[in-house]
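Input:
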Amino acid sequence: MEPFKIMEIKQSIFEDNDQQANQLRESLKAEKTFLLNLMSSPGAGKTTTLVKTLEILKNEMRLGILEADIDSDVDAHSISKTGVKVIQLHTGGMCHLDADMTKQGLLGLGTEDVDCAILENVGNLVCPAEFDTGASKNAMILSVPEGDDKPLKYPLMFSIVDVLLINKIDVLPYFDFDLETVKEHVKKLNPNIRVIPISARTGEGIEEWANWLRTEVKLWNEK
Amino acid sequence: MEPFKIMEIKQSIFEDNDQQANQLRESLKAEKTFLLNLMSSPGAGKTTTLVKTLEILKNEMRLGILEADIDSDVDAHSISKTGVKVIQLHTGGMCHLDADMTKQGLLGLGTEDVDCAILENVGNLVCPAEFDTGASKNAMILSVPEGDDKPLKYPLMFSIVDVLLINKIDVLPYFDFDLETVKEHVKKLNPNIRVIPISARTGEGIEEWANWLRTEVKLWNEK
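Output:
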């Protein structure tokens, strides 16, 4: 038996996703559960970053992870090893989660004992940017090997996130990737974005990122 | 003025994409135009690989490139510098091209003087795998930094392609990426797949890949 639940998510029947998203956000607010929506390309390092983040935060807040994938469960296994509660969501081929699908996942996970839920969205820079999941905050990871032109090519994704993690900075010497160029492009699209360079492998920057998340969870439960 | 055409692709109105795809494939066959559908995650190196490939093949066959992107044109600029005919297709937020959208693009490009057309699909491992574009052959690029678990997570994509390029092998020493593991997983999903490790940066493997393409274009025009 798997150490976590696997759930087939049903395609949403609601026409107005924004309304569903706002309702979900309000109900999460009322029950004091913060929800982070974490997005990236395939292979940018969402799961590795999450594992490192959970190791730092798991003893100071109650965490719960939603792993959305087309149909595998390798990521849920990795998360499960940290001891943090996790559910694997299968999107049935869908390239994103909308608010109703997220709500199904949260019900499957159970949020009554969760201060901070994190949704690892499907690896994709297009579709997830178009659907408000009802999250309290949105984060994305861009990894150095993907190239510094990505904000030009996927502007919507960079416009809608509150924080951008630039991962794999330990391999910066081996790639033509200009950190300042990325920051400049991103700030043009999204002046209020917070940019945090990290390496999930070496741990560099993870403390700064965990601090950001810690602060946001606190603000969410106070307001 | 741009050195290439920019075209807004209309969403397809056809219900039966498979039928549209087969019709397109037949008409391309009749006019002796080979069509390659090239797919990958964002940042896996589609454009860089294409530029290297065009440099090798442009003096021995008539090429034409369709660059599909959400709304930028940086890739068409890169291709345009090789002197090869290129058109920039904007998908209006769509995360893939289907057969009808591809046909619109081919009409915009003009294929009467093209032996080999290459469609650089939207950077995405989910949606493009679900739609037959009408291509003669399908190729994908997986890059080393994305990780060797990708065939487990995006099995459909790896199942439907004829050739898999494993790019950025020049950075293999800096990543936990096992080439043999990938080959093993991929062959289980797709026993007839051809796997070619390359580095678009150093040029390693590009000649083998160009050879594969050269042979396929020849077979297409002979049969």
